[in-house]
Amino acid sequence: MRSKTKSTTIFSRRRDDYLLSLRLLLLLSLLSTTVTCYVTDLKLAICDNKQFACPHNPGYQRIPIDLNVGTSLPKSVYLDLKDDPTSDPITDIKIVKQSDEQQALFDNTKSWTRLDGNLNEGGTDDTNLTLYYTKDLEISKNPITSIIVKTGSHPVVSPDYVRIPINLNQGVGGESIYMFHSQAGSKDPITAITAKGCLTDDCYIDGWNRVEKDVNEGVIIGTRVYLFYQRIRGQPPVTDVVVILNDQSTPEGYHKVDVDLNQLTIRGASIHLWYQVKENPTNEDLENFIQELAIEYGHPSITPFGWTRIPVDLNSDKDGKSDFGEPTFLFYRRGYPELPSIPPLGFNDKGSFKILQLADLHFTNKEGKCRDIPTSNMECHGDNTTIEQIVRLLDLEKPDLVVFSGDNINGEDVSDARAATFKFADPVIQRKIPWAAVFGNHDDENDLSREELLTTMSQMPYSLTQRGPLHVSGVGNYLLKILSNSTQEGEHLFTIYFLDSGAYTNDTKKEYDFIKQDQLDWLQTMSTSFSNNKYGTQKPNAMAFFHIPIWEYHEEQGGPNPRLGDKRESISSPKEGAAKVFESFKAAGDIKVTGCGHDHVNDYCLDRDGIFLCYGGGLGLNGYGASHLGWPRRARIWEVSDWGETIQTWKRLHDDSLTMIDFQTIYL
User: Fold this and answer.
1) In the prediction, which pLDDT does 602 show?
2) What does pTM read for this prediction?
3) Which end of the chain is flanked by fewer CB atoms within 10 Å, N or C?
């Protein structure tokens, strides 16, 4: 009994320290260029389902799924989110049935706020669902950073998200819908682990959180097997996890998960998970308890920062190595190590700053393919060869910033987009180089949404990628400032904007999406906010990165616009007049250069009314190219010099000597 009291006291003291540090973090986020967004308010938008569109709550982001989709209910219901940096964050949400006794409990406490409206608006009393949220840090210490909704009875979701275990359409027909949320910061410890075998992926245990991804993925004969965990405050923490094959000795003092992870397969190995619980945890145990579990598919797999990979393929035979099915590995996170600090981006003492743009990498979580390569004189190993080229570029150019300009992940043959994300950024992270990314039209065509991928990238070392304002269309609209030096006291001399150019205008995928007016309004607001500086410019010069080219990348017929570089394919842009992006860039006045991707075998820079519109040129071997026609894959380098008044840019070819081509100087 004394040990439990000691454990509870230690947890309480740690929680008090955390609450103080969280409040300090929220204050510091207001002063930081790299902004962490927290959800601070929720509202429902309810309208007749025959309306063309439900009115938006101004200043809120809408989750674009009708919570009554597919039902016969007369109303459409949408959830809108807000991220006001001056307000306290929401730390937990609950969905309660009208008939539940819990509802009276929630209504009678000041800690929970009831959302006006019914998630099943128009249904009967016994199908009513009410959403509650809290900002009480004693109930939950972790601010919510993202809320998503997915359809289906068992949608795959990133391990950064927690499932709210209520089907929002239960009892009213229509497709199953579930809500998920992610939270920032150190989590409470995992206190128990179990597993369950099922005939389908609709496999859950009441009161337990599921570790997403079937550990028997790709196996024709055998059951689906999922791992589950609990976090119960006051219970002793899990401090270690091991995987034991059938002929290995079992660890002393560990709890066995009874379900065989190779359940009913035809392989010889019996694989079980064992975990250790400390009944009398020391301070060191409490610093290093198991916080999270995740399954990762693919080979080779990258171990993300702060995680540990158990080196046993859970789809293995007797020796723990791959046999058949998807290569599957279990990872756990022990404690909560802080990400490495990133100094402010700044010019060196010669007034220059170098950017490496990597376009259209098309990574997978597997080995990848080699498309459109010469039939001879080129040894190619898919993604590994692309990685080798990235490593050569990094070591030769030594950039101050790397920009991944979209289609970083392939649109097919990817079973784990999170694992593919770890792979494409790993060479940059290993060299401790800051990096930023935008999304292309293929990145979210697999198991994870843009929102989930952004959450993953924001938790990776040296990442400057940000979600951007919730009320602005898209995911990943943000800016980075280049200062006169790499200190907080440096003066803002150059700006890099990042914009989400979307994917397609509709599900037919016949027309490419475009940058929306509210994104341009945000950009102009930010541009206007930048004041004069002592170096003589009216506002800092700027450049912008996005994936899909805007219409003005087309050359005017017979026009005077000079172009340097190759145009080997038609410009796959939104249709003319779809958006006034170029006009907004001109009106802002600071954007002098843009960099995009998308069209892999275009690599030119086009001077259009004083704004240089440039392609990066595709680098990834898993995407289409023209190497087989004597046009090697390539990457673009940007060197901002003269303290932001000049840009030199060139390209490096994927050949034995990384040949430099098309060097040009752009005076801003």
Assistant:
1) 97
2) 0.91
3) N
